[in-house]
Amino acid sequence: MVTNRETPDQTSQAGAGAGSAAPADGGGRPRLLLLDGHSMAFRAFFALPVDKFGTSTGQSTNAVYGFASMLVKLLRDEEPTHVAVAWDLSGPTFRHEEYEEYKGGRSETPPEFPSQVPLTQDLMRLIGVANLSAPGFEADDVIATLARQGCEAGMEVLIASGDRDAFQLVTDSCTVLYPGKSLSDLRRMDPAAVEEKYAVPPERYRDLAALVGEKADNLPGVPGVGPKTAAKWIAKYGSLDELIAHADEIGGKAGQNFRDHMDDVLRNQRLNLLATDVELGADVASLVLGEADRAGVDALFDNLEFASNLRERLYAVLKTDGDGGAGEGAAPAAEGFAVDLTVAGTGELAAWLREHAAADTPESDTLTPQAPAGLALDAVWGQGSGRVDALAISVPAGAAVFVDPTLLDPADTEALAGFLADPGRPKVVHEYKGALLALGAHGWSMGGVVSDTALAAYLVQPGQRRFDLADLCRRYLGRELEEDTSGDQLSLDLGEGGDAGSGRQHLLAVRAAATRDLAGVLTAELDKRGGTHLLADVELPLVDVLARMERAGIAADREYLEGLQEEFASAARGAVEKAHEVVGREFNLGSPKQLQQVLFEDLGLPRTKKIKTGYTTDADALAWLAAQSDHELPGVLLHHRDQTKLKTTVEGLIKTIADDERIHTTFNQTVAATGRLSSTEPNLQNIPVRTDVGRRIRRAFVVGEGFDELLTADYSQIELRIMAHLSGEQALIDAFNSGYDFHAQMAAQVFGVPVGEVDGEARSRIKAMSYGLAYGLSAYGLSQQLGIAPEESKRLMEDYFAEFGGVRDYLNAVVEEARRVGYTETILGRRRYLPDLTSDNRQRREMAERMALNAPIQGSAADIIKVAMLQVDAAITDRGLSSRVLLQVHDELVVEVAPGEREEVENLVTHEMNSAYALRVPLGVSVGSGQNWHDAAH
């Protein structure tokens, strides 16, 4: 753990100046950690797949995430007292002034990288790490200057850099942490390690590099002279200067090359020398690791949509003795959670509940609607079921009870079941749906749940990715909650014969108390933000609906899926054979290196975008090659990837078929910041419906035993209808009410032609434009989507807005209003807070603007389908029908229809979905039915 008791300002006031440093905690030697910012950020960028790390608005985040992960490891393992990150600036340096080709010929920087640098710098600032740079100098020079200062001040210096020039700085007091094969692998390059690797001491590494050259810096060395020859020469003569003095003694072709390229060697030697006297406006004494601004870090991580595990690891290494690392804006420090714990033995729970949790007695511990009990479970859940190993109940006066379900007698079981189900006994729980599934597997139901702290926190801060109880307690209560971090769900090893002092039993009781206290704070936050009704009237009631949907699952045709799996596997094998045939030899289609050799060397096809490992062979590149070349290999490779991906998808579905021959997906309410539900294990929302193959996969989802058919109902063009409603654009409203094909009518208005003359391309462009605006798409993004020049897409957007000016005015107003108040709002008042709308950082500001455009429309669509689900479920229940909702796929509901209920269910679903919200245009519901999901499409 990193600890520091003084801020940089306090250190300065205490009299520490240049050339001096505060001692490490406990009086030890101070340790200075210096990071080469761009070097480490590039390493993180290429180590983590850019397509797997990004926000819902398209901001790439792999470099920021990887950099933060590396920093966490460094802070944890090295425990520095002083830290700084040195960054390159975009302008030329003194080295460019001497040699114009310096660093020329480098690969083009990936477009996803530059915007991540200021975000990483923001993170450093928020956690108290200095960002330093100097015009005309490189990050290496900044590091060299600070390293010299640190060594002179008696500090131990560590340099994290992937630039070998840093090896010249290595001494007994200065070590370079050089990247290895993996993101977390850093090799300690001390004097012995440098000499072992290069056969020269660190002070001579610069001489060796001058002879060998540095490709990354475009510094050519002596032809035919590698590190071994250079090291042998330096060892013989002692230094490059002495080698040059004896140049005539070097024989052979290498010696002649050396003499012929002497000017290059001398230039390299000058340019390799790192400056150690750069004016920085800061010295090592001012680089004490500062305190983290937790509120700022939380906001940044929320905007970047990072999971909370990285946040927790970061806070763990930044924690201070004084306030747990909390910076400005964090909750104040507070006492822990005190519980008066009873471990209920057999026959004791009913009495405890009568004393402490009765609904109709006046004692101080009596529960009221204003004072709910906290409930915590040691449980597992998933695939529509679960198991409870233990539970704890905490009441407001501090009394708590720990319950082992295996010790309950009939009276205790009845009392517990009554308490859990009683709507008159208010309760709060963390992750309500999981509790419903786990308790339901034991035959217990829940009533009276007035808050789910995970859901409440999600409504307060929808930009977060995860809502761990410990993190929420730290944020909102200023209290530390000991956690078992073995998994996402609490898993306690209760052992045998535990008593009231058992740490594990106490932990569960503390979780119950923490949930209860947290619920009160979050309720107050929701009241201030106008979100109380969303929790009470939408999200909490929806939990029960989703739990029943997960329990029901959807029937799957295993035999059909296995046939598809073999078909796709066979097609993939056929593609491999075809690829080998057209090339004339065998190669590994899954190896980018071998693909590069075959495509660009053997076949001589046009080069694609240059990347660190050569030239990209991703799907976009292969599609481009297929269009640019008559060679059939790119198309064969694309077919192989498609079939392999489909095989993997089907394999995943087969693995999730449960013993009841149904697939039980998990619906997540707290993942998408817009309010949309997501589906996992497996994801049934990403099975394509517009492709033939996707429709074939949907055939595998069938009506289950005891039911007649599947019915699907979905909203038609709901995002565009919401855009028409919110913008009030009359021409858009008229287009919906015209009776014509909507997109054709829109295209006719934009291009000024009759509807009957609108061709497919014009319709497609306007459709892409309309949906793109609903998703916050820029002119550049539209050009990429349509495959047209940015100038053309800009003109198309201008023509669109000329016809539908109200849409443009609405979109502009959304951003400006959000900038003024700090959030966007849906039709039901679901807010998304966007503090970066006023950020000085252009990348963060533009990212927030895209979110502001996206959130009201997408969020309103999510609101409407959730209300529709509640109304459909309630109507089915009220009428005593046996039919049931199985799936929600964005704007679509899938219902399993019981015998004899087809007509009533169709009318019911259509009516309830149409009446979910009154827009200025009809909502528009389409219905279909069939024996499987594909046939039920419409």
From TrEMBL:
InterPro entries: 3'-5'_exonuclease_dom (IPR002562), 5-3_exonucl_a-hlix_arch_N (IPR020046), 5-3_exonuclease (IPR002421), 5-3_exonuclease_C_sf (IPR036279), DNA-dir_DNA_pol_A_palm_dom (IPR001098), DNA/RNA_pol_sf (IPR043502), DNA_polI_exonuclease (IPR054690), DNA_polI_H3TH (IPR020045). Residues 28-290 form the 5'-3' exonuclease domain. The keyword DNA-binding applies. Residues 340-527 form the 3'-5' exonuclease domain. It is an enzyme of class 2 (transferase). SUPFAM superfamilies: 5' to 3' exonuclease, C-terminal subdomain, DNA/RNA polymerases, PIN domain-like, Ribonuclease H-like. Residues 1-25 are annotated as: Disordered. One of its GO terms (molecular function) is DNA-directed DNA polymerase activity. Keywords: DNA damage, DNA repair, DNA replication, DNA-binding, DNA-directed DNA polymerase, Exonuclease, Hydrolase, Nuclease, Nucleotidyltransferase, Transferase. Residues 1-13 have a biased composition (Polar residues). It holds the Pfam family DNA_polI_exo1. Residues 694-901 form the DNA-directed DNA polymerase family A palm domain. CDD domains: DNA_pol_A_pol_I_C, DNA_polA_I_Bacillus_like_exo, H3TH_53EXO, PIN_53EXO. It catalyses: DNA(n) + a 2'-deoxyribonucleoside 5'-triphosphate = DNA(n+1) + diphosphate. Its EC number is 2.7.7.7. NCBIfam families: pola, PRK05755.1. PANTHER family: DNA POLYMERASE I, DNA POLYMERASE NU. Belongs to the DNA polymerase type-A family. This is DNA polymerase I. It comes from Nocardiopsis tropica.
